[in-house]
Amino acid sequence: MPPIAITPPNEENSTSDLTVAGIEHSLSKTAPSVFKSATNANGTTLSDHLTDGPANENKFPKGISTPLAELDASLLNISLTSSPRPVPALGSPEMASQKVCTDHMIQAKWTVEHGWAAPSLQPFGPISLMPTASCLHYATECFEGMKLYRGHDGKLRLFRPQLNCNRMLVSTNRIALPAFPPTELLKLIVKLCATDGAKWLPKDRPGSFLYIRPTMIASDPALGVQRPKEALLFVILTCFPAMDGSPTGLKLLASKDDMVRAWPGGFGYAKVGANYGPSLVAQGEARALGYDQILWLFGETCNVTEAGASNFFVVWKTRDGNTQIVTAPLDERIILDGITRRSVLELARTRLVAGSANLELPAVEIVERKFTMHEIEEAANEGRLIEAFAAGTAFFIAPVGHIHFRGGDVKVPMKEGEGGQYTSVIKRWLKGIMWGQEQHEWGFVVDEE
């Protein structure tokens, strides 16, 4: 599977060309080292993908003689709080409120005149914005969702954090916010986790986590539909309840013709606030009817895309008798390139396909393709539907037990409280990596302070 992309694919229409050109221009001006590492030996063509490797020795493109200051974690200013906050008890209403944050936060300011100022680690608290700030009027903001885990071996871990930082660059590119070297963002996140992790995830709470929310907003205090000239990056750590367990599985309400979450040529692939706010009316109505999330469908054929804000997987047998794990593809850039989604697919391709060493379950085919709600209905009616689950940072791996579609109900097989056997084993593998029960390269150990 390729790394997360810097730009949308260069489609054959002027709008897409303008988007790609705009992203390339922004990268060259606001993060020239990233642009440099993504160009070829001639320094003229931007690669389709951002790799995790070091910058190469390509020359800067013409016209970038004095680039703006880039985000630089080595310049971090540290100011520790004099008023530490209490840590909520496990299972308390405060823990479940999703609004209790740790003692500190990261901030960094960008301006079009100077680029990135020195970032700061400072006491958690309010931020100041003018009422005319761009983000309040034009949805110029994006974010990431990550977790900091307290392992059963006593260590603090992140899970594949470089991919989150890469994806946040994708989002800032799409929403006209300044670029940055993803490795520098990761250093800032790690510093915040190292500072607050020991207190807020004590060693007597193995298996617990904090939610990490890196965010960038356009703080430009001028009205007008234009590229922002000022931006603020901040990172916070928040107490968060586990959301992956339900004895009956998630109940999903399939979207109707008047609901569209994302579309080709849009921004469904970017983690921007504009993807979420417009979905809240439908989500609220679904919950009022007793459902957990919307299963978002697209087009007249009712193609399955996402479950709420999570990627969706189905396990079924084909009419030829083959067992498949199926999820929607990324090629139309309607769905988010989820870190959990990517990890599920990579684990399944190495541990669940024919020929895998130590195969725990019957081998499956891993399929990324368009599929419809009608196909799920047919599989259920013909006894071929095996299980289904949602995958994302917040909901983790959550089994699906019920889907309502066009007046009918699809019952998804699952074991009580566990989900199906493929759902359960994938969830166990991921938890083992996240909480240190399996030593794996995806587990990024944080040395706490």
Share of residues in helices: 10-25%
SSE sequence, one letter per element: HHEHEEEHEEEHHEEEHEEEEHEHEEEHE
**Main sheet?**
10 strands, mixed
* Annotated CATH architecture of the largest domain: Alpha-Beta Barrel
What's the CATH first level of the largest domain? Alpha Beta
Tally of discrete structural domains: 3
What structural category arises from helix and sheet content? Answer: alpha+beta
Which radius of gyration do the C-alpha atoms yield?
Answer: 22 Å
Count of separate DSSP helical elements = 10
Q: Indicate the proportion of strand residues.
A: 15-25%
Per CATH, the superfamily of the largest domain is D-amino Acid Aminotransferase, subunit A, domain 2
Regions with little confidence, pLDDT below 50 for 5+ residues:
9-15, 40-65
Overall pLDDT level? 88
Shape: globular
Protein name: Branched-chain-amino-acid aminotransferase
GO molecular function: L-isoleucine-2-oxoglutarate transaminase activity; L-leucine-2-oxoglutarate transaminase activity; L-valine-2-oxoglutarate transaminase activity
Family: Belongs to the class-IV pyridoxal-phosphate-dependent aminotransferase family.
EC number: 2.6.1.42
